[in-house]
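lol forgot to send this yesterday, sorry. struct tokens for the thing we talked abt
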């Protein structure tokens, strides 16, 4: 059984300030996006919220891999929390651990079925960039309106060249020749799905998986 990937990111316009978080869940051919905002928060809290929501929404009986560019999140959940718990939620300097309530929520949804992986941020990884874009929009510092859903004209693509990208927003299916075109379509749309396809067989399989007609 394939591992489910959860790509997360957090952002803050001012720190503290208005914040946004995003989690993209990839289960085989199925891509689902979640994002949200907080009017007054910190970047670290948004990183935590993204991971918590991603794990809450992912299948519980599967192997999960959380992919994040946050060293705070990775080090906290894989190294620091055990020491904090033993020390009564105090740091080495005997100070209260910041964001304790969120760390406890994260611990509750973490487990041996979860693997944590760090990826370098802003290094061209498409899914990391997508999560960052969603978080930035929710924080009010990206190009877009938080929680807005653009109106799209339904379009049914007909397969021609490969590779290509498919996007699915509600019942609206679109075919794109480039990632940039696909990204513009799904930009800021909660629940948008997308997939890169290499050949006709993958195209047909994806349509069946999404239960749509091309």
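and heres what i got for the seq, position by position
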């Amino acid at each position: 059984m394939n591992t489910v990937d959860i790509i997360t990111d957090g952002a803050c316009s001012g720190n503290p300030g208005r914040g946004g978080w995003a989690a993209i869940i990839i289960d085989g051919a199925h891509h689902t996006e979640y994002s949200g905002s907080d009017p007054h928060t910190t970047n670290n809290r948004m990183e935590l919220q993204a991971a918590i929501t991603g794990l809450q929404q992912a299948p519980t009986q599967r192997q999960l891999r959380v992919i994040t560019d946050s060293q705070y999140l990775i080090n906290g959940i894989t190294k620091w929390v055990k020491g904090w718990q033993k020390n009564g939620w105090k740091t080495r300097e005997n100070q209260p651990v910041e964001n304790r309530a969120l760390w406890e929520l994260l611990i509750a949804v973490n487990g041996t079925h979860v693997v944590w992986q760090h990826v370098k941020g802003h290094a061209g990884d498409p899914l990391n960039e997508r999560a960052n874009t969603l978080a930035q929009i929710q924080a009010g510092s990206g190009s877009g309106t938080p929680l807005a859903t653009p109106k799209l004209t339904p379009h049914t693509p007909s397969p021609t060249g490969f590779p290509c990208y498919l996007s699915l927003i509600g019942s609206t299916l679109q075919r794109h020749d480039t990632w940039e075109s696909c990204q513009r379509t799904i930009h800021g749309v909660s629940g948008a799905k997308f997939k890169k396809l290499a050949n006709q067989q993958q195209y047909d399989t994806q349509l069946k998986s999404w239960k749509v007609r091309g």
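Strands lie at 4-13, 17-27, 30-41, 64-68, 114-118, 164-169, 172-176, 193-197. anyway ping me if u want another try
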